[in-house]
Design goal:
By secondary structure, this protein is an alpha/beta fold. Helix content is 27%, strand content 23%. It folds into 2 domains: 190 residues, 3-Layer(bba) Sandwich (FAD/NAD(P)-binding domain), CATH 3.50.50; 199 residues, FAD/NAD(P)-binding domain (3-Layer(bba) Sandwich), CATH 3.50.50.60. The protein has a 5-stranded mixed β-sheet, with no helix packed on it. Strands 6-15-7-8-11 form a 5-stranded parallel β-sheet.
């Protein structure tokens, strides 16, 4: 949480790896402190955004959801909102549905099937046999939590994931807090974690075999020499996919005590009482949790239109990891895949503020990233081998071979570019509003 948290508001909870309620409370307190909560329109689902160059503005179409409508309304109401600059902070997942493979005979199963994306509040798993299908962050979080009440939990994975245990409390951070003013302690801890994260990521990429041995050694220390570490030994190199972090070894403790088991196998079919595996083994279950991943959907499926022409994001190039070629006055918060997501979002928010101030100062109404580098080559925007990325890679923008079209996945490089680099960098095209002359330098114009 020292890197996931906001740079301007210190995280004060003793736990560095915190639970949902503590994180939600932190976000709510921050919104209240800075009066953001008063500016939010709840119950609006944005469907379409249209840019009009003649007016230098966006028209955003949103549907009012049931909680925002009166009881007398039976049809969804569409409202139009206008803005000079559109900033999208929806992440890159489809929040309506998760990914579920097409398994044979799913309807044969007589128990309950749950996808974490649609978790029922009243799910009763006490004393039940639970199978969690998956090996990602959701699965390794659910297994130890459910094992506290369930009769037994089995994590069924098609292929292993690298899992790393870290203490829930950061001893160094808590020591800093006792010795230093709150903000100084927070800043030091933040930088400690950023630099350590960069060091281990670079080690994993440059010396993957060394990093693999380190991870296997940690698993053996957790589970003993007799445990078959194949269940935590993927075929791919570290950081070809995300590493999973577990707090205070909770997953390994559940396995050591016999409350949880990891099985690496493929599903042949669902049966009335569980899952038949291709190895011939049958897993009995009362509840099956399909922690099989999410669907990647940039901007949550928002339809973008520029001067009447629909925007195909896969045909655009990402500018500084936040804007898109030939799309005016639009930015999106897109974080890191190898570090805390919000580190990059934090820098992006700062840069957007710098950009808007520059436009006000110079009297510009429009800014548009333009690809004007003839030697620029295109590459996929993400180099992960994870299934959710590969399934959606064809829908995503591209990245370029050079800055500012290159995604560094490196906080220090992005800090230099976004906090201290030039806004008018020769790639961003600025223009005054149609029919208006640009204001003299130093004179701000506000719409």
């Amino acid at each position: 949480m020292y890197t996931l948290g906001y740079r301007f508001r210190p995280w004060q909870d003793p736990k560095a790896i915190a639970g949902g309620p503590a994180i939600l409370n932190y976000i709510r307190e921050t919104a209240t402190e800075f009066n953001v909560d008063k500016e939010i329109r709840y119950g609006h689902r944005v469907r379409r955004a249209s840019w009009l160059s003649a007016d230098a503005r966006w028209i955003v179409e949103a549907e009012l959801q049931p909680e925002a409508q009166s009881e007398l309304q039976t049809e969804k109401t569409v409202v139009n909102l206008t803005c000079n600059f559109l900033y999208l902070c929806t992440g890159y997942y489809d929040y309506d549905t998760g990914y579920t493979p097409d398994w044979p005979d799913v309807k044969k199963f007589s128990g309950q099937i749950v996808h974490p994306q649609k978790w029922p509040e009243n799910l009763d798993y006490q004393g039940k046999r639970v199978v969690v299908i998956g090996s990602g962050a959701t699965a390794v979080t659910l297994v130890p939590a459910m094992a506290e009440l369930a009769a037994h939990v089995t994590m069924l994975q098609r292929s292993p994931t690298y899992v790393v245990s870290r203490p829930a409390q950061d001893i160094v951070a808590n020591w800093f807090r006792r010795l230093l003013p709150l903000r100084a302690a927070y800043a030091l801890t933040r930088w400690k974690n950023v630099l350590l994260g960069m060091f281990f990521y670079n080690l994993a990429r440059s010396r993957p075999n060394v990093f693999k041995r380190m991870l296997r050694k940690k698993v053996r220390r957790e589970l003993g020499e007799q445990y078959d570490v194949k269940h935590f030994t993927p075929q791919y190199n570290p950081w070809d996919q995300r590493l999973c972090l577990v707090p205070d070894s909770d997953l390994f403790k559940a396995i050591r005590t016999g409350r949880a088991t990891v099985v690496t196998d493929h599903i042949e079919t669902f049966t009335e009482t569980g899952l038949q595996l291709k190895s011939g083994e049958h897993l009995d279950a009362d509840i099956i949790v399909t922690a099989t991943g999410l669907v990647l959907k940039l901007m949550c499926g928002l339809q973008l239109v520029v001067d009447g022409a629909p925007v195909d994001l896969s045909k655009t190039m990402a500018y500084k990891g936040m804007m898109y070629s030939d799309v005016p006055n639009l930015a999106s918060a897109f974080g890191y895949t190898n570090a805390s997501w919000t580190l990059k979002c934090d820098l992006t928010a700062e840069y957007v503020c710098r950009l808007l101030k520059h436009m006000d100062k110079e009297g510009y109404a429009r800014c548009t990233p333009r690809v004007n580098e003839p030697q620029l080559t295109e590459e996929p925007v993400l180099d992960f081998t994870s299934g959710y990325v590969q399934r959606a890679l064809h829908t995503l923008p591209r990245q370029g071979s050079k800055t500012p079209w290159r995604l560094h996945q490196n906080y220090v490089k992005d800090l230099s570019m976004l906090r201290f680099g030039r806004v008018d960098d020769g790639t961003m095209e600025f223009a005054a509003a149609p029919g208006e002359r640009r204001a003299d330098a130093g004179v701000a114009q506000h719409g």
